[in-house]
């Protein structure tokens, strides 16, 4: 054995001993730090399902009965415009693209299309399974259904054009909830989890978690099982990131470090 091959064998042997034999240990998904920039008022009766920021305004959809979609003034929390869904529908996530607002329902297998500027109805669409959340990359709609899957939809036909499985540390990550497209990544709430996952939309791999446990209100009489972190909105022009939760009294602007 040459001196080089002997040295290489020693390095490999040391690596196997350090990892307990076999393959090297898989690196854990990093946790990204953040700071709170500002807190805004939020309707503490709103069971938040969807959230997005567009042209200076905040838009929110809720669940429960009745569910609604609304436009909200960020600074005051004042409702500018609201449309209630028929009481048979439990509302879920929503997004906007090309002047239309798309919204989901939980277990009715039905989505709605609205005119963004006045919430007048434009049509509907259907899908298999549950509807949890929607976002867009500017050309496709991206949908979650509570599993580890992200679905891609054509915004004109609403046909599914593909899927990706979300994984963290090589394992499937389910309970994918509210979604937001931010600079080429999908940010996702996880149901009953205080973390946001930053997902590569091409591979489904979680690149980082943002742990927002410190933001959860402790003295607002919230139900820890239902009134959980949910709602991500991105102001692309101002580079501002907003987060809130179901029936939370505040919405927070945070900055990632």
TrEMBL record:
Gene3D superfamilies: YVTN repeat-like/Quinoprotein amine dehydrogenase (2.130.10.10). It holds the Pfam family Glu_cyclase_2. This is Glutaminyl-peptide cyclotransferase. It comes from Brevundimonas mediterranea. GO terms for molecular function: glutaminyl-peptide cyclotransferase activity. PANTHER family: GLUTAMINYL-PEPTIDE CYCLOTRANSFERASE (PTHR31270:SF1). It comes from the Bacteria.
């Amino acid at each position: 054995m040459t001196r080089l091959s002997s040295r290489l064998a020693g390095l490999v042997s040391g690596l196997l001993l350090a990892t307990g034999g076999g393959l090297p240990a898989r690196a854990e998904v990093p946790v990204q730090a953040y700071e709170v920039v500002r807190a805004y008022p939020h309707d503490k009766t709103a069971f938040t399902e969807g959230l997005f920021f567009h042209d200076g305004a905040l838009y929110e959809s809720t669940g429960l009965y009745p569910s609604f979609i609304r436009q909200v003034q960020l600074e005051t929390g004042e409702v500018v415009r609201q449309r209630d869904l028929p009481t048979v529908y439990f509302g879920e996530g929503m997004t906007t693209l090309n002047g239309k607002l798309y919204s989901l329902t939980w277990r009715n297998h039905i989505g709605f299309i609205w005119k963004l500027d006045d919430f007048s109805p434009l049509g509907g669409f259907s899908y298999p399974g549950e509807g949890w959340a929607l976002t867009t990359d500017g050309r496709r709609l991206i949908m979650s259904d509570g599993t580890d899957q992200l679905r891609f939809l054509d915004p004109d036909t609403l046909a599914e054009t593909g899927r990706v499985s979300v994984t963290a540390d090589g394992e499937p990550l389910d309970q994918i909830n509210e979604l937001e497209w931010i600079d080429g990544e999908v940010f996702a709430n996880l149901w009953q989890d205080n973390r946001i996952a930053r997902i590569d939309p091409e591979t489904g791999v979680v690149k980082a978690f943002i742990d927002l446990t410190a933001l959860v209100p402790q003295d607002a009489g919230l139900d820890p099982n239902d009134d959980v972190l949910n709602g991500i909105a991105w102001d692309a022009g101002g580079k501002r990131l907003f987060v809130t939760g179901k029936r939370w009294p505040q919405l927070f602007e945070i900055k990632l470090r």
